[in-house]
Amino acid sequence: MIFNEKFETMKLEDLKNLQSERLRALAKYVYERSPVYKKRIDESGYCLSDIKTIDDITKLPFTTKDDMRDYYPFGLFSMDSSKVAEFHVSSGTTGNPVVSGYSKDDVDLWGEAAARSIGAAGGKAGDIIQVAYGYGLFTGGLGLHYGALKFGCPIMPMSSGQTKRQIKLMSDFKPRILACTPSFAMYMGEEAHSLGFKPENISWEIGIFGAEPWTTAMQNEIDRSLGMLATDIYGLSEITGPGVAQECHLRQGLHIWSDVFYPEIIDPKTDLPVKEGELGELVITTLTRTGMPLLRYRTRDLVSINNEVCACGRTAPRISKIQGRTDDMIVIRGINVFPTQIEYALLQVEESLPNYQIIVDRADKGLDTIEVQVEIDQKFFSDEIKGIEAVKQKIKKSIEQTILVGVNVKLVEPKTIARSEGKAKRVIDNRKI
Ligand code: DLL
């Protein structure tokens, strides 16, 4: 179902005019309210009157994840923090987390974007939705929640975890839609089967899955094992949570709601646009946000774009599934993890040496695992087993407290982990994405 006919099927020419109008207003808005953007626009050699159409967007400065960290917590807001309705936070590369401030209108916009996404996935008003993304500073739970409220779907605000309870309530309430990370969907499917459920006893018909990379093969596997249509949803806290882009039932790319989140695809090395269909970094401008609007935000996510009108009738362009990232962030079970966080956690434990490797795997059933191999001083190896086990637990605890994801720790002797002469390859990602 198309939730918002006017914007989702707008003629391309009208869409371009709307984007141009919104870009002019946005440039003025941030220039007047954000000292950071005022300074950057002044330094760019362009002025507001140079921003006439959406094609002039390239005259505006980029915003990066480093900016988010440097201006932590509220320095990039265009609104006083007392006027903000909600804060959301995700992991930053080092030190400071990434904070995003949503005004009341931004929360409304987020609900609109997520509602369009529920419709694109095939949802209908009245469908019960089981929201099994985490609620809280992470945007997954609340994003689908706001979308469902707007769309008119009765909500089961489950949050993540409690697998058996999720399945029991699925069986009793018969939700038609399940929203969670793809790895959690796989896990729930596995549990449901072990409890004796067959695909025909599973009420979910539509999955709205995202927050982590996953393949089409995994999508097909979820379709098969849960007897549903698994669709991909994309988003990031800085822009808006889930609902920046979403696959329609045809699953030929994710429609990016470009009347509000304007996409550019650039070569991350030259910063120049790539040709339609070529892989590049997704850069997004929030055309209508008011709390923390962002100009040309470098998402570091690698995608290609297809501007052709989709057979579903939507004119919003489609991005490919996320093909990778330009940095070393690993998204594991929906949580962003940076190797530097693991390094930090290791350095808190005196027995560990700062030589480590992170091995990410995807088990057969789709659940991602992290193993951290850590070198420890030779002298601890001569210790009795109990002592070694205690060091291992100490390291495990330190890492888990930092990254908020369970890990396996393997202690190895000094000089076991390959040394590098260039950039150290800290992460071995064995997931086939
Ligand atoms: O993950 C928002 C979200 C919640 C999206 C629920 C979809 C569903 P962050 O925690 O800020 O926000 O992480 C954003 O996660 O830059 C991508 O690298 C990755 N990511 C998000 N969705 C997808 C997806 C949420 N569908 C970062 N496929 C992004 C691959 C995804 N990666």
Give your account of this protein's structure.
By secondary structure, this protein is of the alpha/beta class. It folds into 2 domains: 1-328, 3-Layer(aba) Sandwich (Rossmann fold); 330-429, GMP Synthetase, Chain A, domain 3, CATH 3.30.300. 32% of the residues lie in helices and 24% in strands. The protein is built from 12 helices and 21 strands. The strands form 5 sheets. Strands 4-3-5-6-7-8-9-14-13 form a 9-stranded mixed sheet. A 4-stranded antiparallel sheet has the order 10-11-12-15, with no helix packed on it. A 4-stranded mixed sheet has the order 20-19-18-21. A hairpin with a 5-residue loop joins β18 (352-362) and β19 (368-376). α10 (339-347) crosses α12 (385-403). The protein is globular. 5'-O-[hydroxy(phenylacetyl)phosphoryl]adenosine (DLL) is lined by residues 90, 133, 138-140, 143, 210-213, 232-237, 241-242, 299, 301, 322, 325, 331, 334, 336. 5'-O-[hydroxy(phenylacetyl)phosphoryl]adenosine binds next to α6, β7, β8 and β12.
